Amino acid sequence: MIPERWLNGAILLGMLAVPLWAWADGAPFTITLATKVAILALAGVGLNIALGLGGLVSLGHAVFFGLGGYAMGILASHAQSFVPLAETPFLIEGTKSMPVIWLVAVVVSALAALMIGLLCLRTSGVYFIMITLAFGQMFYYFAISWPRYGGEDGLSIYVRNSFPGLNTLDPIQFFGICFAALAAALWLHGRLIASPFGLALNAARQSPARVETIGLSPFRLRLTAFVISGAITGLAGALFADLNRFVSPTMFSWQLSGEIIIFIILGGIGRLYGPVVGAALFVTLEHVLGGFSEFWQVYLGALLLAVVLVARGGLIGLVAGRERPHE
Amino acid sequence: MLLLIEQVLNGLQYGVMLFLMAAGLTLVFGVMGLINLAHGSLYMVGAFAAAAVAGATGSFLLALAAALAAAAAAGAIVELTVIRRLYDRDHLDQVLATFALILIFSEGTRYFFGSFPLYLDIPAYLSGPVTLPGGILYPTYRLALIGVGLLVSLGLYLLIARTRLGVRIRAGAQDREMIAALGVDISKLYTLVFALGAALAGLAGALVGAIQSVQVGMGEPVLIVAFVVIVIGGIGSVKGAFVGALMVGLTDRLGGLFLPAIFRLFMDGSAAQATGSALASMLIYILMAGVLIWRPQGLYGARA
């Protein structure tokens, strides 16, 4: 068995090596696929903070992904049409600057996570799963029936947004941005696991009553985790919208919420790098099997069923052994 | 006023169909403690079976029978092969495995029936409008749906309250070790409850399939609304599912009518229409949020 730390290093190196090799080889499509993996993995890392660390099975994380995407779409569409977002009470202009868009995406998603979390975390278990799913659907239908920003058709952005000092139109430079965001999120998650907050959150997952006895509030721990989780997934949404230069209500769809969970499970639940492996496997399967058969999701379903019923540690569990880092 | 009565009837029709979906979900959760995302796939199986049989034989009643049989059979097979391995697992595993089942069901159906929607025709004796007291013209078929939905609800109530099977179902929901110790074959009971829920979903799929198109993915939007219904009613409570389904059905249909009208009082026409209908699409979720703040365990739920 390979120690998980080495494996994580290898995963990160692999994430870097594939697009760099493709860059040297002049294969921009592979770089785009790797960028997609990095962004989806980022969304997975976001959910993993709520799910892996906090034990919160949110089936509505597409809400934050979609909000991040629409934050980008709305700001950039106002910038490209030169119509200000609002004139009263003060002038708000659209923008094409990535850092500003990210800030808005993170803040909006965090606020939404705070409000949804305040409601959903009053419940637990199956209720929590169903309610997060329902809120996801609420945002989906709102995005479809609100014609101001494209409704069902979505919004197209003509040119990718800019980042100071970089040419974002170059695939490898945009990959670099996404990879850096992923690495930062993984670092943050690693620090959270070891922090007093992470330990308390983990304890609240295993035994809420004991955590309460020592004077901590499981509700507030979970809410904090949910907000951090939503904010990171929101950032991933903004990057994903920039990758496609397109946002549509499908970013809010419940299938996407399910897929984000799948990334975590395919990689291995409770693993820091699980979402990275899971997202890479998902995109590879989509690309390879999708080439063979229009019905590739049958195989995805069968694989998922096998992982859940038989190989419960996911892919990392197969390689690094069954022991989990925090159990 | 006429429009109001018509929308109330539409709301009832939507509500009873939601109840057929929600009843199976809530029974399966109440008795087996399982969250089943693939319930929407069973709805779709029912609709496709009905469309295929109606296309081959031309008989609507045969089509309904086929929908019931196909959905119940699909439910029993899935229970025997996959679902029964999940009862002891945590909810995350149940969510993932049933999500995997959705993928398999949806793609499998697309493989056999293609991506184009099928159409299921309303039988001649139920087509056309009927005149209600007060001179309201209302589609006969939708009225029949309300009638069928209420009849099935009554049947389900009698089944659970008055029969031996119903006693076992209620006992299973309360203490499964105890009834197993009393000699009831619990795994057979589970298969039966699951197939019953599946049959109800399949029936709803076939009945609704005649007013909407029959296509892959038709089940999941209904499934999610059915989740809203049982969260409102309280998970595990069939009575709660009934009340919740009617509340959701009426809220949805009346919201679509009233909200644009309310916004028209202080906004101009098209903007009011857009804002009103956007908000109307969120109304049932707002209702759910309200119920959660007031009673986190749902209207008839025992515990959260």
- Element pattern of chain A in H and E: HHHHHEHHHHEHHHH
- Our count of helices of chain A gives 13
Return the domain count of chain A: 1
Derived from helix and strand composition plus strand pairing, the structural class of chain A reads mainly alpha
The total of beta strands of chain B comes to 2
- End-to-end Cα distance of chain B, whole Å, is 40 Å
Strand line-up across the major sheet of chain A: 1-2
Multimeric status of the protein: heterodimer
Largest sheet of chain A: 2 strands, antiparallel
CATH class division of chain A = Mainly Alpha
How many helical elements of chain B?
Answer: 12
Query: Strand portion of chain A, in percent?
Result: under 5%
Spatially, the strands of the biggest sheet of chain B line up as 1-2
Assign the CATH topology of chain A: ABC transporter involved in vitamin B12 uptake, BtuC
**SSE order of chain B, one letter for each helix or strand:** HHHHEEHHHHHHHH
Mean pLDDT of chain A, rounded to whole units? Answer: 88
Explained architecture:
The complex is a heterodimer of chains A (327) and B (304). Chain A contains 13 helices and 2 strands. Chain A has helices spanning 4-25, 28-53, 62-81, 98-120, 125-145, 171-194, 196-206, 208-213, 218-244, 254-267, 274-292, 296-309, 314-320, and strands spanning 155-156, 246-247. In chain A, strands 1-2 form a two-stranded antiparallel sheet. The mean pLDDT of chain A is 88. Chain B has 304 residues and is mostly helical. Chain B has a domain at 2-123 and 130-216. Chain B has 12 helices and 2 strands. Chain B has a two-stranded antiparallel sheet with strand order 1-2. The radius of gyration of chain B is 20 Å and the shape is globular. The chains are: A mainly alpha (327), B mainly alpha (304).
